[in-house]
Inverse folding.
């Protein structure tokens, strides 16, 4: 595993700045890789990890950097829960660990580095030096990885019966017709209430 300092340098370049979130994300990912025995997530152990991230903030970029898990490879899964937490799944062993940043770490940062100002610098100093146990709670968990959830899943594309757009990875729903047959609908047509966009006419 590369050192914290090396990874932080790479995270800074990739993310554009070195913020407290980068340090937290790098440390979360390091801790998880260590727990799972994944030594070279971007080298010999490539393709072993899938990460479920629960927030789309600075730390998310750092987690992607350390683990090599990217959205475009389907190895980075985003669950929009607004939590500084992520679950790291080792596909080789089937084991998974969920790591959460502790709320108490902010107070601890103040207590340990009272002389460091401003708060952002204080947090950075703390996140570099506090122990894993002081920063995070970690839990072994089970993650069901269905075939269509896997990075390399190859599935046919289905055309939505309403909008005609192609749908990959089984992300459609079957809707019953009046005559008892069924037709596939994309999520946008099946559940318009969940649609994030509206047409402008
Ligand atoms: Zn940032
Ligand atoms: Zn549709």
């Amino acid at each position: 595993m590369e050192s914290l300092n090396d990874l932080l340098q790479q995270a800074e370049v990739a993310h554009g700045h070195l913020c407290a979130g980068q340090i937290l994300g790098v440390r979360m990912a390091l801790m998880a890789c260590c727990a799972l025995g994944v030594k070279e997530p971007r080298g010999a152990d490539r393709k072993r990890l899938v990460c479920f991230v629960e927030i789309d903030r600075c730390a998310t970029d750092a987690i992607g950097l350390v683990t090599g898990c990217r959205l475009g490879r389907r190895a980075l899964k985003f669950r929009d829960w607004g939590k500084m937490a992520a679950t790291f799944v080792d596909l080789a062993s089937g084991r998974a660990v969920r790591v959460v940043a502790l709320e108490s770490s902010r107070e601890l940062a103040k207590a340990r580095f009272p002389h460091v100002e401003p708060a952002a610098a204080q947090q950075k100093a703390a996140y570099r030096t506090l122990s894993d146990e002081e920063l995070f709670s970690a839990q072994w968990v089970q993650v069901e990885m269905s075939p269509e959830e896997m990075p390399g899943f190859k599935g046919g594309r289905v055309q939505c019966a309403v909008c005609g757009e192609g749908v990959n990875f089984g992300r459609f729903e079957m809707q019953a017709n009046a005559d008892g047959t069924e037709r596939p609908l994309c999520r946008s047509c099946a559940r318009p209430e969940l649609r994030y966009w509206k047409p402008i006419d």
